[in-house]
Fold this protein.
Amino acid sequence: MHFGSPTRFALSVEGRDSGFESCVLLDHVPHREVGMRHMPILGMPSTYTRSMVTLDIPDVACERCVLQLTSMMSDALHGIPAGTSCVTRGPDTAPGSPAANASLVECPTYHSCAAVSISGSTPRSKFTCPQQPADWPYRNLPPAVYLAQADTAGDSGYDGQGWLLAAPERYREPAGPCAESALAARSRHGRMGARAAAEAPA
């Protein structure tokens, strides 16, 4: 359990595990704060707290790209004092950008990456990634800069399935066969758990 750990989604350049700072698809996705009462236990999915968001993949042609999810550890446990900020930096961080501020420490991070092939129309080497979507509620927050333990939504900020309530509807709808398969598997798992509980001896 880490408090105040917002998420960022980014896309790499073609064929390399780099370039994420220049192609951020969605930033400042709030952490679902559920408090100490729901501490997750490794290997026990029933103790996990789900949060979901649907994001647009740009119209880019990329045979070997990497889709990266990064969680920023912006809490005091990870050395980020209350009232301060931390940043994420990389080789593509633009000089003069908020993230280039040398007085700010780097956020400790966790990463989850997936190799993807995208069949769009513009080659990745010629593609300029768009800014944050105009309807994303957190688009005006400074890119790659995270205030200590601030980007949170609270448990009440998500619905029962784990969708972020503050986001417009298109961010709260499953999109694509992978999402549909995952939700179907989750539904089957829930029914199996309920049946097992019902069949357990009293």
